[in-house]
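Exercise: predict the fold of this chain.
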Amino acid sequence: MRIPIIGTEGVGDVLAAAWTNSGHQIVVGDARDRTRADALAERIGDSVRAAAGVDEAARSAEVIVLAGGFQSLELLPSPSTTAGKVLVDAMNQVPDTEPRGTDDRPSSVIVAERFPDAAIVKAFNTIDPDELRDSARPGIPRDRRFAIFLAGDNARANARVATLIEEIGYTPVDTGSLRHGGALQRPGSAIFGRMLLPAEARRVLALSR
């Protein structure tokens, strides 16, 4: 599968390398600095290509990962390039960078409003990039892998992202709808920043609902 990743720092870097190792082709785009995308592609190898821009990157596949800063939504692809596609929101909205007027909604609800014709799945945002890189456990039973949380309103899109999570050595744990499940994944929540095995993750979620 060809997977565009928008944003070339932190989780974007880690996912590009991990999915390349799983046999996927990665297209990276960075609206702030094209040289970052070029450097990432050069570092990882032939299975990663730097796009000329974020719209070009988004047009190239059916699953797109948003790994840039939530406070810079204007640097994301245009909505027309994401129509009918799965959009993985790996961004976080933190208090000191919240755009004015967003009230108390989860960031993915705001992202969904910007991209109304895409299926939004919230994932990969609760784990530190270094932990994401170092704590993968491919090849062992799923109940002994660490959890990666996801939330979304489209069952087919959720299933596609769950498969991508499993491919890199983690177990997907569903937190619910985009609105409620996205809120459970916010910075400061009971699951944010914690490495949890699936059974423990589900217990923590049950206490948080």
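Check your answer against the key: The longest strand covers residues 147-152.
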